[in-house]
Amino acid sequence: MADDSASEPDWWRTAVIYQVYPRSFADSDGDGIGDLPGLISRLDYLAELGIDAIWVSPFYPSPLNDGGYDVADYRGVDPRLGTMDDIRTLVDQCHRRGIRILMDIVPNHSSSEHPWFVELLAAAPGSPAWDRYIVRPGRGPDASLAPNNWTSVFHGPAWSPLLHADGTSTGSWYLHLFDSTQPDFDWTHPEVLADFDATLRFWFDLGIDGFRIDVAHGLAKQEGLPDQATAASEDGLLAEQRTPYWDQDGVHEIYRRWRAIADSYDPPRVFCGEAWVESEERLANYLRPDELHTSFNFEYLKAGWDAERMREVVDRTIATHEAIGAPPTWVLSNHDVVRHRTRLAPGYQEGTPDEVRGLARARAATAFALALPGSAYLYQGEELGLPEVDLPDDVRQDPAWQRSGGTDGFRDGCRVPIPWTSTAPHHGFGPTDRSWLPQPAHWAGLAVAVQEADPDSTLQRYRELLRQRRAQPALQSTSMSWLPELQVAEQALGMRRVGLDGSVVDVVVNLGQQLLELPPSLGTTVIAASGEQLAILDADEGPRLVIGPETCAWLQGSGS
Ligand code: TEU
User: Fold this and answer.
1) Is 301 in the pocket of ligand 1 (CB under 6 A)?
2) Is any ligand 1 atom within 6 A of the Cβ of residue 298?
3) Is the CB of 70 under 6 A from ligand 1?
4) Which of 326, 453, 508, 545 is 20 to 30 A from 197 in CA distance terms?
5) What pLDDT is recorded for position 2?
């Protein structure tokens, strides 16, 4: 398929975007780390899956202290993952298949191995090289206390002391909202702004279609870097005060600047923000017409398996996005959260997830999300129904695991390499027996090759859902209304989508454990479903569709 991006400038409004975590996708050279040639070799698989775009997590040169979200060079490729020629080939091969490609940009912080931070460490205290990062004098008589009480997302203080080459204190500290090897940039510094402009242009010139923006809510810090309110704060401001390093209004100026750069390209390039903010209303600020095109909507991910909450989140999401003309987005899994097959399973909270029901729920939740208006994100391996892996502690690499003393930072469990075949070594992940994280033996049964041969596999379900999503004008429209015949109280959700051509698709999900009999008015023509538990019952008033427990079905409707 030829590149048609020029003819579809609004492709991102309805796109299904597949997240590739490159270290875990496919390893071409046998070093145990997935790489760009591995990804290129699997593009036919992604084309057949039926996605519109891929978002590739970072492959920049990096010490990999945070899986590549610690970038040492924003305009290069880590030699373990490939070369600049590989990225050119990747872009070309994606576009030949009609797949767009988004990269991941990490603007809140760099790696401590970035040349600017290396320069800072070698420079005399107070040199201009100190100004590109957030450096402040310590508190206390000997500056031995951090400049404020901010804590790192990865646990412990968000500040580390800056030391002289001989290990003695400079009296100053640097800020890192994440690992101590991820110093935060000072976004009030013009060189930081200019350098990121250059990075955007560098990759846009190379032909990529856009960026996912890491920690999009973190770049601007509250002026004066005040202490954050804590439960112990005397003034009790906790509820009212916005955390002084998240979602500060200053971030919006940066995105307006970036949008102007993206819009100067033909076709315009696009952005998706990773912004964890306190409400849908705050999220909408990022999606104003001169800022980001889309943003992840984590409220849906957090809604769980609960008809009432799902309905509420869908309503709120659609209303806030409609008000500013931005498409809603839906996501259930990514490289930071427990895979939704495990997270949605009964018993997950108690540590005993029922993975069989977890899979049924995960497939149903995905089928429902893929039928909602807007754009959707899939995370590699969810189309195989991969569960979260409970890894042995000695292989864990998540920096938050170390920093929390083993009480948090379990993100490696969703980053285990993909099983391509049922055979050793490593189920086709790579040509050798090396793999940076081990796969469970039972993943042989979940391998791509096995699921391709099984018409009822999770993979085949995803393919069918994505094929219908493209084929049905009703699923490409923005219209959506709830079906009054289906009641939250009965653990059921039903929505009607109507296409510009008047065609109708009704989508029903049975969240309960009983059979759900649909009224005859909804018809019985199933065009895709999350599972096989569907039957037609002949009743006096006409045939009725019966939907099994924890199952979602898409029906060709006749309208009303
Ligand atoms: O995540 C940002 C973020 O806020 C996460 O810390 C999230 O809350 C957490 O991972 C949940 O456990 C991004 C990346 O997606 C993540 O992989 C990086 O570690 C992080 O930024 C730092 O760059």
Assistant:
1) no
2) no
3) no
4) 326
5) 42
Residue 457 CA to residue 455 CA, distance in Å, equals: 6
Among 332, 273, 272, which Cα is nearest to 302's?
Answer: 332
- What CA–CA distance (Å, rounded) separates 333 from 318? 20
User: Residue 275: phi, psi to the nearest 5?
Assistant: -120, 110
- How far apart CA 378 and CA 472 sit, in angstroms, is 20
CA of 430 to the centre of ligand 1 (A): 27
Q: Tell me: cis bond preceding 157? Omega within 30 of 0 counts.
A: no
Give pLDDT, residue 290: 97
Ligand 1 centroid, distance to 501 Cα (angstroms): 42
**In 321-341, which positions are buried (b, 16+ CB within 10 angstroms) versus exposed (e)?**
beeeebbbbbbbbbbebbbbb
Which tokens go with 371? 């039928």
Over residues 386-399, the mean pLDDT reads: 97
Integer Rg of the chain from CA: 24
Tokens 């890192």 sit on residue: 176
CB atoms inside a 10 Å sphere around CB 548: 20
Strand-by-strand arrangement of the 135-137 sheet: 135-137, 169-175, 159-163
As a whole number of angstroms, the distance between CA 523 and CA 506 comes to 9
| CB neighbour list of residue 311: distance below 8 Å, 6 or more residues apart | 482, 488, 493
Q: What percent of the chain has pLDDT over 90?
A: 91
Q: How far apart are the first and last CA of the chain?
A: 37
What number does the ligand 1 atom closest to the CA of 336 have?
10
Report how far residue 465's alpha carbon sits from residue 369's, in angstroms, rounded to the nearest whole number: 11
Q: Percentage helix, strand, coil, to 5, in the chain?
A: 35, 15, 50
pTM above 0.90, yes or no: yes
Question: Strand 135-137 and strand 16-20: pairing?
Answer: unpaired
Determine the Cα–Cα distance for residues 79 and 226; give it in Å rounded to an integer: 41
Q: Output the average pLDDT for the chain.
A: 95
Pocket test for ligand 1, best of 105, 178, 182 (most atoms within 8 A of CB): 178
* Six token digits for residue 279: 């409400």
Q: For residue 532, list its beta bridge partners.
A: none
* 120 contacts 24 by C-beta, under 8 angstroms: no
Token output for 541: 């008033």
